[in-house]
Amino acid sequence: ILNVEQSPQSLHVQEGDSTNFTCSFPSSNFYALHWYRWETAKSPEALFVMTLNGDEKKKGRISATLNTKEGYSYLYIKGSQPEDSATYLCAFGGTSYGKLTFGQGTILTVHP
Amino acid sequence: NAGVTQTPKFQVLKTGQSMTLQCAQDMNHEYMSWYRQDPGMGLRLIHYSVGAGITDQGEVPNGYNVSRSTTEDFPLRLLSAAPSQTSVYFCASSPRDTVGNQPQHFGDGTRLSIL
Hints:
The complex is a heterodimer of chains A (about 110) and B (about 120). Chain A has about 110 residues and is mainly beta. Chain A has no helices and eleven strands.
């Protein structure tokens, strides 16, 4: 069983704060690292898929970085808004055929 | 565009009953997966398929069967339901990619309770 860890487990921030969380994964047999955003009562939606060491991806106020050699990825949210409240999942792909191992998620709550 | 469709959305079973959770996708994706989501444990892979006629076990396959007779459909069967199988089940699909960089598309989930 692959070990994919996310920290912190939960996070409370005020509107306007910037925040970041971490995903750690095995540094061997790496194919891809996925980030998903999961709102309550909805299904997970993909934010980023990163495949190369040093990758940086950005979508609006959310960005992610990848270090495959040391086995970690950071997700950053700049100027958090209440609508950013969700669970953020990372998933490690150790094969080329879509098989993913998910972390347990970071629950973000942004208070107005 | 329907995407990934799961039925039913909710189901209550008695211990020992069997049932099939349905999953269908209309995006012609080769890869399909079933996950279960339990509090504090994220998504755990039950079974997955890389194409019609090909399935394999994930992290928590015991008590579940799958088959993939068509590209579109990937049903999950509970053989003899147990209370430990109470969970929310998600089906996901993604297109074939040789470097694994395609995101997965998730259905809305099936909330299953075993009494």
